[in-house]
């Protein structure tokens, strides 16, 4: 339709115009355009007169049921029933054909448990990857983890104390208790690091050893807990509903590459300051940051610089590299990206960071039974309790659906506030409500033994529901362009509400229009399922 109006404008006024369509209130029509208001100034004419001329040409085409002009010159268009049927079957655009996007879909560090922030980043990045795939990009899901440095030193200090020279003592830790145990070890080390200068020096040395792991006892303890960590990370990410990754990167492999790159670009990109190599990020909307310390060892930024090169090496066809992080890292990544583009100009324009808002509970509680952070395991347990309390069965797909939706319905950058009981409700804007809505639609179809087939007619009573169904491909297109899952959440909730209004007014089973209405129910159920799939949420046949 955009192209048709643009062609008419060119024919009538000899102007090449970019036409935008919006969805007005249903009482005005299915689409609206303000193209006449855009043309008024360059043509030097009254916008309403221009609108009337365009509207008349659209009426003469016979393709629309009604075309009217409102206000100062808005053109409102009502589709024919055949046009609505056609639009209801339209697929989302394949707008990213030829793009190859590498995206980190999880990045928790080993040696400590995954927390609620890791869950948010993993769920959001995985859903963004789904959006990229829907728009025909070739998506490469990867992960990145800190296996060296300060956090390892803190954990190893407590682990050494626990083992007391005998690494076999770790065998006494039951698999179900390992995640909590790792959290306890890290918390002990982190606390001691702050409180005791002697311990701080010991931990710094243990952090240094994480790069070489020459000592046999150190290596044995490290390897054991490292393996536990990734067993837990893989299990937890799968529980969240994420798709598997195809490549795992570690800081230890990125570090030497990043350090070498930094040293090779002194002084044109990095400058020496008291022995450290620093990037003047303050010139690029970030802050001045040391990439290599005065001791010659790489710091976080050097490792991120190395990681960027590892991705480019492994995926030479890469057109975009995406990282999702917390808002507190936004300035840091602006600096890393600026330094990378100056050092590696072939990557200019390919690196993107999406910062998220904060995550908190509505109760204000920001700690769990493991100590300092809300772990994902604790969150799953709390969701299970809430689902049981409302009389539901806390299956993994139901818990994950409620959890994912609570994150995804918030626009990227906004804070996520968790009210766990509200998040599992079957009556509000929740993942559980949409899963229930799908299961309910399936039960309607089972009751009448629906055998398939699309609607072949639209009655006036169907129009509000059909109009909402025709918006699906447009919403998906917008969500894929901007990588904004919340748009899909909003749409699916509105669609379910529209269906409820329809179903309350019009009987399906046993009515004279049973086959027709069942076909509409099927389209509605399929649309719900497709939208939930993009969000990474299962559409259960029963709740």
Could you characterize what this model shows?
With 543 residues, this protein is α/β, with parallel strands linked by helices. Helices cover 52% and strands 13% of the residues. The strands form four sheets. It has a five-stranded parallel sheet with strand order 6-5-4-10-11. The two termini are 41 Å apart. The model is unreliable at 365-371 (pLDDT under 50).
Please summarize what this structure is.
It is built from 20 helices and 13 strands.
What percent strand? Answer: 5-15%
Q: Strand order, biggest sheet?
A: 6-5-4-10-11
Strand tally: 13
Radius of gyration: 28 Å
Shape: flat
Residues in helix, %: 40-55%
Helices, by number, come to 20
- Unreliable spans are 365-371
- Cα(first) to Cα(last) distance is 41 Å
| Overall pLDDT | 94
Largest sheet: 5 strands, parallel
Indicate the topology.
Layout: H1 2-13, E1 31-33, H2 35-43, H3 47-61, E2 64-70, E3 74-79, H4 81-88, E4 100-106, H5 116-134, E5 138-145, H6 150-163, H7 178-195, H8 197-209, H9 216-239, E6 247-250, H10 251-264, E7 270-273, E8 276-280, E9 288-292, H11 300-314, E10 320-326, H12 330-343, E11 351-356, E12 359-361, H13 376-389, H14 396-408, E13 416-418, H15 420-423, H16 431-447, H17 463-470, H18 472-482, H19 485-505, H20 514-534
Parallel strand pairs: 4-5, 4-10, 5-6, 10-11, 12-13
Antiparallel strand pairs: 1-3, 2-3, 7-8, 8-9
Helix pairs in contact: 1-3, 2-3, 4-17, 6-7, 6-8, 7-8, 10-11, 11-12, 13-14, 16-20, 17-19, 18-19, 19-20
């Amino acid at each position: 339709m955009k192209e048709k109006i643009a062609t008419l404008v060119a024919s009538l006024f000899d102007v090449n115009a970019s036409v935008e369509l919006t969805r007005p209130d249903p009482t005005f029509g299915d689409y609206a355009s303000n193209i006449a208001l855009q043309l008024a100034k360059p043509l030097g004419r009254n916008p309403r007169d221009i609108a009337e001329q365009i509207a008349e040409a659209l009426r003469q085409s016979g393709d629309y049921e009604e075309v009217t002009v409102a206000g100062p010159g808005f053109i409102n268009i009502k589709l024919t029933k055949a046009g609505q049927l056609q639009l209801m079957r339209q697929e989302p655009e394949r707008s990213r054909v030829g793009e190859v996007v590498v995206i980190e879909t999880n990045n928790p560090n080993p040696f400590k448990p995954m927390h609620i922030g890791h869950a948010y980043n993993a769920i959001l990045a995985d859903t963004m990857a789904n959006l990229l795939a829907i728009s025909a990009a070739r998506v490469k899901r990867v992960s990145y983890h800190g296996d060296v440095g300060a956090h390892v030193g803190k954990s190893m200090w407590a682990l050494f104390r626990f083992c007391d020279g005998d690494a076999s003592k770790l065998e006494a830790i039951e698999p179900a208790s390992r995640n909590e145990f790792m959290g306890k070890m890290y918390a002990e080390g982190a606390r001691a690091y702050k409180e005791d200068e002697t311990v701080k020096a010991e931990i710094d040395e243990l952090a240094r050893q994480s790069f070489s792991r020459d000592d046999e006892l150190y290596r044995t303890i490290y390897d054991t807990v490292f393996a536990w960590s990734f067993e837990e990370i893989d299990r937890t990410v799968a529980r969240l509903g994420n798709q598997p990754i195809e490549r795992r990167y570690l800081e230890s492999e990125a570090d030497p590459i990043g350090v070498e790159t930094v040293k090779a670009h002194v002084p044109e990109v990095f400058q020496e300051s008291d022995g450290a190599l620093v990037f003047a990020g303050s010139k690029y909307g970030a802050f001045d940051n040391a990439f290599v310390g005065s001791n010659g060892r790489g710091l976080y930024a050097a490792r991120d610089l190395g990681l960027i090169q590892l991705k480019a090496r492994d995926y030479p066809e890469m057109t975009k590299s995406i990282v999702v992080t917390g808002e507190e890292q936004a300035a840091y990544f602006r600096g890393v990206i600026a330094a990378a583009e100056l050092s590696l100009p072939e990557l200019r324009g390919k690196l993107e960071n999406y910062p998220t808002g904060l995550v908190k509970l509505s109760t204000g509680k920001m700690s769990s039974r493991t100590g300092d952070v809300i772990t994902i395991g604790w969150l799953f347990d709390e969701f299970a309790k809430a689902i049981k309390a409302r009389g539901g069965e806390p299956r993994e797909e139901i818990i994950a659906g409620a959890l994912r939706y609570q994150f995804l319905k918030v626009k990227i950058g906004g804070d996520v506030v968790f009210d766990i009981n509200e998040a599992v409700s079957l009556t509000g804007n929740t993942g559980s409500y949409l899963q229930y809505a799908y299961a309910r639609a399936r039960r309607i179809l089972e009751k009448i033994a629906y055998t398939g087939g699309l609607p072949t007619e639209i009655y006036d009573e169907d129009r509000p529901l059909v109009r909402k169904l025709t918006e699906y491909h447009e919403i998906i297109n917008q969500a894929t362009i901007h990588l904004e899952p919340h748009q899909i959440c909003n749409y699916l909730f509105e669609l379910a509400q529209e269906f409820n209004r329809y179903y309350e007014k019009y009987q399906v089973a046993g009515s004279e229009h049973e086959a027709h209405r069942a076909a509409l129910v099927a389209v509605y159920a399929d649309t719900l399922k497709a939208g939930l799939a993009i969000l990474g949420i299962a559409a259960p046949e029963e709740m």
